Amino acid sequence: MLGFPHDTHTHTVYSDGIGSIADNIASAEEKGLKLLGITDHSHYVVGKTFNRYVREIRRWGNESEITVLAGIEGNITPNGIDVPDFVAKKLDYVIVSVHEWVDTPEEYLELVKLALIDENVDVIGHFGANFPYVGFPSVEELNEVLELAEANGKAFEISSRYRVPELDFIRECIKRGIKLTFASDAHFPEGVGNVGWSEKVFKKAGGKREDLLFEEFL
Ligand SMILES: [Zn+2]
Ligand SMILES: [Zn+2]
Fold it and tell me: What single string gives the DSSP state of each residue in 180-210?
């Protein structure tokens, strides 16, 4: 049983997931979550389906006893974030992640820094998922990222799917008052709420309720 039962990163048929919004909510209820976020990929939902996407999350959310938030997972590209203002305004929160191939950790961090100064961004998704492939940045480089996040009030998710960020990075977030969330990144309903790793590392790092971005719903 989770002490902070929430999952802020899940996908549905609105992008590359296989369950409906209702399916994800049903699974979250079954697992005893208090908060569920629906965060489909921006390049699927920004466009004609966007209004329907938000409407459907609101409709099913209103029928549920748990808190259901409408979010999105945007892409961080060399040109910035692909989440327009009008989209961010209609949503409860915006996650953005690096999904494109980069060659060095420095290239990856430059992309993340673009997100950290973008006012539409709330949470950085699966930070460091690329490091095993491109190499790990130095402590100094990571400190620059932490400083920007702290200065701009950005949060990081603790991703049970990718098992990132690293424990030391999470400890540093907590020390600096940078908020955290738990994320399954589930693409199928049964995976919703699979955030055991997130909570384990959060607690190991000394995390308390007040270190969570959405503590008021938990
Ligand atoms: Zn992602
Ligand atoms: Zn995702």
Answer: EEEE--BSSGGGTT--HHHHHHHHHTT--GG
* Distance (Å, whole) CA 189 – CA 150: 33
Q: Residue 200, Cβ neighbours under 10 Å: how many?
A: 12
Instruction: Extract the tokens encoding 39.
Output: 């965060």
C-alpha of residue 97 to centroid of ligand 1, in Å = 5
Nearest ligand by distance to the CA of 40: 2
Residue from 99, 112, 94 nearest 162 by CA: 99
Domain architecture of the chain: domains with CATH: 6-213 (3.20.20.140)
Is the predicted pLDDT of residue 1 greater than 90, yes or no?
no
Pick the ligand that lies closest to the CA of residue 10: 2
pLDDT digits (tens, 9 = 90+) for 159-211: 999 999 999 999 999 999 999 999 999 999 999 999 999 999 999 999 999 99
pLDDT, tens only, 28-74: 999 999 999 999 999 999 999 999 999 999 999 999 999 999 999 99
Residue 23 makes CB contacts below 8 A (sequence gap 6+) with: 12, 189
CA of 159 to the centre of ligand 1 (A): 10
What gap in Å lies between CA 4 and CA 201, rounded to an integer? 13
